C-alpha cells in the first residue's frame, strides 16, 4: 500500500474522498419527521474533493472545491453537487492527472501560471444573484450559478477588481454590498475593498502591515470594517524556499484595524489585544462609543514541537483546534480594548442569522469539536453570545457533521425564529443525511431527517439563501 493511502486526509470517509459523483436528485426521501413548510431557500456548502490521485503528500486543504446544494421549497428538498471548475481543475481535467503538489509540498514543481493551485474550496457567498466561490489563501473569486452550480468563470466585476479576494469576505444582507480583503507576501501586504450590490462599482484601498501576515477572517458593522493583523504568520525563511510554514510570535500583540466602510488607507485605526489567532469571526456591531466583536479565539495556535512526529501527524496537529467563544470591545473614543472569554468549550465554524450580520445580534450556532487526532464535528452548540450560555445537540455515535446554516422562518419575528440545518455523516454506515433543527427548541434534536443520495465529505463553509431571494418574494 502506498504512503498516500495511509493519509487520513485522503482515505478517511470524512475528507477528500475521490468517489463523490456530481449528481442532481429532484426529491429526497424523508427518513423521520416532516419538512417544515414555513421556510424555503438554499443551503450551499463548499469543501474539498480530490478528483485525481494526488502527487506526494496530501493535505485536506488541497482538494478541489465542490459545492453541495440543498434546495427547499413547499416542504420538498432537492440535492445537487458540482466541482468548482477553476483554472487548475480544468488543466488537470485535460491531462487526467494531478499536476500540483499541495500545501505541504515543494511548490517550485508546480505549473508556473499558479504556483499553489487556487482550489476555490473554502467559502461560498451569495452576491448579485449568483454564488461566489472563494479560497482561504486569497485568490481569484469564481462566479457560480446558484441554481445549477455551474461555474460561470472568474469574477473581476467588469475589470474593476485589481486584487484577489480572501475566503472570509462578507455580504451585508441589508445593503447587498460585498466587503472583502486580500493579503499576500508583497508590500503593502493587504488590500481592503467594497463591491456594490450590483457588482458594477469597486472601492479598494491598500492597508499597510508590518510584513506578510496570515489573516483568515474579518468583521463588519453597519458603518465599519474590522481587519486583523495577528501574530501567527508565515516563516520568512520558509517562504524564500517556496514552502509554507507558519510560526506563532507570542511576544507580538493581536491588532484589529477599524476602517469606515468606504474609508481610505489613512482612516484605519489600530487597536491592540492579547496575542492569539482567530480563524472565524461571528459578528460585530456599534454600541455607543464601542465596537463589539464576537469570535472564536485560539490561545495556542501552534502545536508543541515533536521531533518524532511524521509529516501527516504534524498536519493533523494544526487541525485539532482549541478555540473558545470570546469578545472584544474597542472603545473608539479612548482607544481602550476590553476582552474576555465567554465559554471554555472547544467550538468553531460559527454561523448566525445573516439578516443580523453587522447589527447587534445574540445567537451563534457553532460546531462542537471532538477530542480526536484531527478536526471532527460531533455536535452543534447554540450560544447566547451576550452571556456565554449554551445549548448542545450532539450527533450520536459514529456521526460527524459540517458547518451548519441558519434559515429564518417566513416573516420571522425575532432573531432565532427559524431553523438550523446541516449535513451529518455516519462513519459506520457510510451514509449522509440532512438534519433540520428548530432553533427555538435546539436541544430536542432534529424535527426532520432527510436521506442524501451519496456520502457528503466533511467540508469547510456554507451559506443560506432565503427563498425570497432565491425563488422570488412570495416563496
TrEMBL record:
The keyword Cell cycle does not apply. Coiled coil: none annotated. InterPro entries: Carotenoid_Oase. It comes from the Bacteria. Keywords: Iron, Metal-binding. Pfam families: RPE65. Transmembrane segments: none annotated. Its cofactor is Fe(2+). Belongs to the carotenoid oxygenase family. This is Carotenoid oxygenase family protein. It comes from Sporosarcina siberiensis. The lineage of its organism: Bacteria, Bacillati, Bacillota, Bacilli, Bacillales.
Amino acid at each position: 500500500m502506498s504512503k498516500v493511502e495511509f493519509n487520513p486526509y485522503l482515505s478517511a470517509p470524512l475528507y477528500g474522498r475521490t468517489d463523490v459523483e456530481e449528481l442532481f436528485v429532484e426529491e429526497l426521501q424523508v427518513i423521520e419527521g416532516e419538512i417544515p413548510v414555513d421556510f424555503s431557500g438554499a443551503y450551499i456548502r463548499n469543501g474539498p474533493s480530490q478528483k485525481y490521485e494526488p502527487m506526494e503528500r496530501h493535505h485536506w486543504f488541497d482538494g478541489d472545491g465542490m459545492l453541495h446544494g440543498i434546495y427547499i421549497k413547499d416542504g420538498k428538498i432537492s440535492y445537487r453537487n458540482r466541482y468548482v471548475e477553476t483554472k487548475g481543475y480544468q488543466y488537470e481535467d485535460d491531462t487526467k492527472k494531478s499536476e500540483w503538489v499541495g500545501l505541504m509540498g515543494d511548490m517550485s514543481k508546480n505549473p508556473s501560471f499558479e504556483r499553489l493551485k487556487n482550489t476555490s474550496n473554502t467559502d461560498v457567498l451569495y452576491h448579485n444573484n449568483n454564488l461566489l466561490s472563494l479560497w482561504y489563501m486569497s485568490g481569484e473569486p469564481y462566479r457560480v450559478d446558484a441554481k445549477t452550480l455551474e461555474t460561470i468563470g472568474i469574477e473581476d466585476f467588469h475589470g474593476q477588481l485589481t486584487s484577489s479576494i480572501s475566503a472570509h469576505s462578507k455580504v451585508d444582507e441589508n445593503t447587498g454590498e460585498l466587503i472583502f480583503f486580500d493579503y499576500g507576501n508583497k508590500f503593502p501586504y493587504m488590500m481592503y475593498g467594497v463591491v456594490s450590490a450590483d457588482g458594477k462599482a469597486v472601492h479598494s484601498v491598500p492597508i499597510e502591515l508590518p510584513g506578510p501576515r496570515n489573516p483568515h477572517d474579518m468583521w463588519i458593522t453597519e458603518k465599519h470594517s474590522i481587519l486583523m493583523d495577528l501574530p501567527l504568520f508565515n516563516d520568512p525563511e520558509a517562504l524564500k524556499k517556496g514552502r509554507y510554514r507558519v510560526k506563532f510570535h507570542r511576544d507580538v500583540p493581536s491588532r484589529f484595524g477599524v476602517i469606515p466602510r468606504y474609508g481610505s488607507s489613512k482612516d484605519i485605526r489600530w487597536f491592540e489585544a492579547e496575542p492569539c489567532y482567530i480563524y472565524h469571526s461571528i459578528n460585530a456591531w456599534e454600541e455607543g462609543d464601542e465596537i463589539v466583536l464576537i469570535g472564536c479565539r485560539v490561545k495556542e495556535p501552534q502545536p508543541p514541537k515533536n521531533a518524532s512526529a511524521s509529516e501527516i501527524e504534524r498536519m493533523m496537529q494544526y487541525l485539532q483546534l482549541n478555540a473558545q467563544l470570546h469578545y472584544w470591545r474597542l472603545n473608539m473614543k479612548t482607544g481602550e480594548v476590553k476582552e474576555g472569554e465567554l465559554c471554555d468549550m472547544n467550538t468553531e465554524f460559527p454561523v448566525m442569522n445573516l439578516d443580523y450580520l453587522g447589527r447587534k445580534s445574540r445567537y451563534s450556532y457553532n460546531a462542537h469539536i471532538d477530542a480526536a487526532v484531527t478536526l471532527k464535528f460531533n455536535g452543534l452548540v447554540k450560544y447566547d453570545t451576550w452571556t456565554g450560555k449554551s445549548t448542545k445537540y450532539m450527533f450520536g455515535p459514529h456521526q460527524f457533521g459540517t458547518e451548519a446554516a441558519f434559515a429564518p422562518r417566513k416573516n420571522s419575528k425575532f432573531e432565532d425564529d427559524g431553523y438550523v440545518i446541516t449535513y451529518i455523516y455516519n462513519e459506520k454506515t457510510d451514509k449522509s443525511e440532512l438534519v433540520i433543527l428548530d432553533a427555538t427548541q435546539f436541544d430536542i434534536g432534529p424535527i426532520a431527517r432527510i436521506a442524501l443520495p451519496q456520502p457528503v465529505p466533511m467540508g469547510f463553509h456554507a451559506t443560506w439563501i432565503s427563498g425570497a431571494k432565491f425563488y422570488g418574494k412570495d416563496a
